[in-house]
Amino acid sequence: MATIWNRRAALKGLLTTTAAVSTVGLAGAGTIAEKRPAMPAALKGNIRQSVCRWCFADLSLEQLCAAAKEMGIRGIDLVGPQEWPTLKKYGLDSPMCNGAEINLTDGFNDPQFHARLQKQYAAMIPQVAKAGYRNLICFSGSRRDKTDEQGWANCVAGLKPLMKLAEQHNVVLVMELLNSKIDHKDYQCDRTAWGAELAKRLGSEHFKLLYDIYHMQIDEGDVIRTLTEFHPYIAHYHTAGVPGRHELNDAQELNYPAIMRAILATGFKGYVAQEFIPKQPDKLASLRQAVQLCDV
C-alpha cells in the first residue's frame, strides 16, 4: 500500500466494451477477444454483485462500468464522490464507498488519528447520503502492540461520536476484516469475532463489518460456519481465490457456490463484490466467470 489508497488505485483505460462484440486491445492487460460469445442467460440475481474498481486498473471507469452493466453486475465498489457521477450514468450503485479513511494502517484503534478521522468521516457521511448510497468503509488500523481490549476501547472512543451522524443520514460505517498473516501485517481487525465484539460495544445498526472471504480464509478459515454465526454484524462481502487473490476457479481452495448459498441462507440482502486480481489475459472473461459462479 504505497499510497493512502494504493489498492484502490485510479483506473487507466481506453474505450468501453460493447455488450456482445469487442475489438478493443487493453494496454498492459492482454487483448479482449475480438468476438465475445453471446450474452449468457439473465442472472438469477439472488446475490446482488458488485466489482472492486482497483482490481481492474487497466480499464477506465467508463469501460469497467459498461462491462459490469452488460454482465449483470449492479455496482462498483471502493470509489469516491468524484467517480459517483460515472456510476450514475450507467445506472450502477456504489455499494461500498470510500474516501474518508487515512489508509489501512492508521485507523480508529489509535487515538492519535481520531481527530483527523472524525473530521473526514463527518464530512463524507452526508455526501454518501446525498448521493443515495449507504455504506462507507473504515479500518481498525495496525495493532502496534495494543491488546485486544485497548483496540476495542480506542475504536469505540473514535467511532462513537460518529454514530449519531451516521444514524441521522442512514449511513453505515463498515469496518473491513483483513488478514494480518500475508497481506496486512499487524492489522488489528483480523478476526470476525474481534469485529463482532466491537459492533456489540458500539451497539448501533450503523456500524457493521465487511467480511472479506479471501482475508478470513487466510486468518481463520471455517468460512461458512463463521459467516453464519456472525451474519447479523455483516453488511458486505468481498471475494477472491485463495491462495493468491486470483480467479474463483478450481485452482484455488474455496467453494464459492457453497459460500454464496450459505450467505443467502442467512437472509442477506446486501452486496457481494468481486475483489480478485485476474491472472488470465482476458480479464473481463475472468470477471464474467466469477459473476456466473456466484449467481446461485
UniProtKB/TrEMBL annotation:
Domain Xylose isomerase-like TIM barrel: 86-278
Catalytic residues of the enzyme: E176 (proton donor/acceptor), E275 (proton donor/acceptor)
Pfam family, one: AP_endonuc_2
GO molecular function, one term: isomerase activity
Keyword Signal appears in the UniProt entry: no
Keywords: Isomerase, Pyruvate
Highest taxon of the lineage: Bacteria
Entry keyword annotation includes Glycosyltransferase: no
PANTHER family in the record: ISOMERASE, XYLOSE ISOMERASE DOMAIN PROTEIN TIM BARREL
Family designation: Belongs to the hyi family.
Protein name: Hydroxypyruvate isomerase
Species for this entry: Hymenobacter perfusus
